[in-house]
Amino acid sequence: MNQTSILSQAESISGEIIANRRHLHRNPELSFVEFNTSVFIQNALREIDIPFTIMGTTGVIALIGAGERCVALRADIDALPIDEETGLDFASTNPGVMHACGHDAHTAMLLGAAKILKTREAELGGVVKLIFQPGEEKVPGGASILIKEGVLSNPIPEAIFGQHVYPDTPVGEISFVSGPMMASADELYWTITGKGCHAAQPHQGIDPIMIAAEMIVHLQSIVTKMRNPLKPGVLAITSIHAGSVTNIVPDVVELKGTLRSFDNEWRHEALAHIKHHSESLAAMYGAVCEFKPLLGYPPLINNATAVEFARKTAETIFGAEVVSDFEPKMWGEDFAFYAQKIPACFWVMGVRPRDLSYLPGLHNAKFTPDEESFAKGSALLASVAIDWLSNPKPL
Ligand code: NI
């Protein structure tokens, strides 16, 4: 068996992979309510005689092969609350919902890999576990729910691999990075309660807008002065709501924001600092600040051995010239939960058409990945699983 034949096998079913992706694109569903998407995946697996179970209501977990060893491949299946503006003839028919993060392509590519793996089932050196995961886009993340339901046991995968389409690199370029790849992403919510009054009688009130303004500036000191500068961190306040007229000081200001880090320890220290500083600053003026963080995903840390393994497979299939280093991003990705439990490698695959220098990015209403990359994604997923199981366990 060689990888060239897996790539040509993937290319021979490229039409089907694209058709599946277009069906999913036309029928996007939001996180945790991917009911029709789940049925579509189940039917596709039934058609090629792959057994599966359901987890997390809409997640589909399939097994191919037999034996002691196991490796997992994961695709996310949910869409976003975005109004599509691509003008494609297979654009979303579900108003206000769009596959703007490419999870339609991820699902179709994993289905393509399933088909390839099924034809080679007898040659597999173990079990390939396919995880079609719901709710990547919404805290607490489908990955955390599936893990609680036992997706990483029975059988236990030695490693897990996943991929994301990437608009910044041309079609077919595969990029890897060891260690931190994406950041923790926590949602932050503040309610600052002062005391409303007429603006002309400030001594009769407590102005929460002035406190909020001071707080927004002050909190940056947690990132600039309380963080090891060698450990990246972002604190952004992205929403502020209060008041309605020119002459009345309101009672309440509401703020929202995000905290990002590659370092779990600093992340929790920073949350404690934000709470302490916010409450203290408000108290200084006699106001009350309630700070409520909603913990999101942990940082995504790739395992060096798993990365090296997948990278070698990618170089063998496509040539080293299309394999590059990924520059870590402070985005969030719930694949991080798997990576906390078992060796993991997440890579990105370029989907920018070769004749374009810019493709609207992920979560953009005009995001349109080049479909030529999808067969390559199926080939790489299938090859990594086959290679993993036919080589001695590297970890
Ligand atoms: Ni995504």
Q: Which architecture of the largest domain per CATH?
A: 3-Layer(aba) Sandwich
Helix content: 25-40%
Can you tell me the overall shape?
Answer: elongated
Strand adjacency order, main sheet: 1-2-4-3-5-16-6-15
CATH level 1 class label of the largest domain: Alpha Beta
Order of helical and strand elements: HHHEEEHEHEEEEEHEEEHEEHEHEH
CATH superfamily of the largest domain: Zn peptidases
Largest sheet properties:
8 strands, mixed
**Number of distinct beta strands:** 16
The number of domains: 2
**Average pLDDT taken over every residue:** 97
Q: Whole-Å distance between the termini?
A: 24 Å
Beta-sheet strand percentage? 25-35%
Oligomer: single chain
| Gyration radius over CA | 24 Å
The name of the CATH topology of the largest domain is Aminopeptidase
Ligand inventory reads: nickel (II) ion
Total helical elements:
10
Low-confidence stretches: none
Keywords:
alpha/beta; single chain; Alpha-Beta Plaits; Aminopeptidase; 395 residues; elongated; 16 strands; binds nickel (II) ion; four-stranded antiparallel β-sheet
Sum this structure up briefly.
The chain is an alpha/beta fold. The protein has helices at 3-12, 14-26, 35-47, 103-119, 142-148, 208-225, 264-284, 304-318, 335-341, 373-390, and strands at residues 52-55, 59-65, 70-76, 127-133, 160-170, 174-176, 179-182, 184-193, 197-198, 233-241, 248-249, 252-261, 288-297, 300-302, 323-325, 344-352.
